[in-house]
Specification:
With about 220 residues, the chain is α/β, with parallel strands linked by helices. It contains eight helices and seven strands, in the order ααβαβαβαβαααβββ.
Length: about 220
């Protein structure tokens, strides 16, 4: 069912039509600017026919229980991306997925208790290392593993990566773990946000960095 729901989503179309191509479609868990990013990682590609086949082969075929996707919000209209997901699941799979808003403090409480069927969440790296994504979100005993994912092979790889001194080998181990997580359809990555900045031509040596506090001491202001 997880596979079917992931493959039923056309993230590229959502980005083009709904988001005016302002974001990047996530083809994995680690974003391109993150150390350890591997462009050979295979994410999910929209495949409506495969999605229908997978759902028909599941034990829930023709007898799907109520599905609720919860997101943090105060009510009102659901986020546009989630509404698009809801429509695609209905059109492709015939699934009626209910979008349910939850006040933020209640959302966090229920998230920690693991009571949601599905939930929408985001993640911003605290420091530039794949450990901050893969260990934090997918290691069995991690407090941030709020989806309850558990795979002994992934745990072993993450443990190896922690103690591997060679950075190249370490990143290769993390790539193996990332691919296994994606193969399990533990989550559905959607978009990597893009930040747009306008810098005047008189500003020289503006620091273009992906995730840190820019060092402004090296900037020069050149008068025309």
């Amino acid at each position: 069912v997880r596979q079917a729901m992931a493959l039923a989503l056309d993230q590229k179309q959502i980005n083009e039509v709904l988001l005016y191509e302002s974001q990047r479609v996530a083809d994995g868990i680690l974003p391109p600017e993150m150390p350890g990013y591997n462009e050979s990682i295979k994410g999910y590609t929209h495949d409506a026919a495969k999605a229908k086949q997978l759902l028909s082969e599941s034990k829930y075929a023709g007898n799907m229980p109520r599905i609720i996707l919860t997101y943090a919000g105060a009510g009102g209209d659901a986020p546009d991306i989630l509404a698009a997901y809801q429509s695609m699941w209905k059109d492709t799979l015939g699934l009626d997925v209910e979008l349910q808003a939850s006040e933020y403090s209640a959302y966090l409480r229920e998230l920690r208790q693991g009571t949601f069927q599905m939930f929408s969440a985001g993640w911003a790296a605290d420091y530039p290392d794949p450990e901050d994504f893969l260990d934090k979100l997918f290691e069995t005993n991690s407090p941030q593993n709020e989806q309850g994912y558990s795979n002994a092979d992934v745990d072993n790889l993450l443990k190896q990566a922690r103690y591997e001194p060679d950075n190249t080998k370490r990143n290769q181990i993390y790539s193996q773990a990332e691919q296994k997580i994606l193969d399990d359809f533990a989550v559905i990555p959607n978009f990597w946000p893009v930040e747009h900045l306008l810098v005047k031509s008189c500003v020289k040596d503006w620091p273009s960095v992906s995730m840190t506090v820019p060092t402004y001491r090296y900037i020069d202001i050149v008068k025309d």
